[in-house]
Amino acid sequence: xxxxxxxxxxxxxxxxxxxxxxxxxxxxxxxxxxxxxxxxxxxxxxxxxxxxxxxxxxxxxxxxxx
Length: 66
What we know:
Helix content is 70%, strand content 0%. It is an all-alpha fold. It has a domain at 32-66. The longest helix is centred in the C-terminal third of the chain and has 28 residues, at 37-64. The mean pLDDT is 82.
């Protein structure tokens, strides 16, 4: 019973990998487009800027709180 279910999951995963890959095109599996350089730069600035700036905003909020 366990062997049968393991075999079924292995076959399903193998089929998924085999049929859902398009040959290793760079950037194919990313959740954002990489063809527009300026949009990509803006996304990176927002992503890393928000992570870098969050502790400073929290600190400012705590210092201004009465």
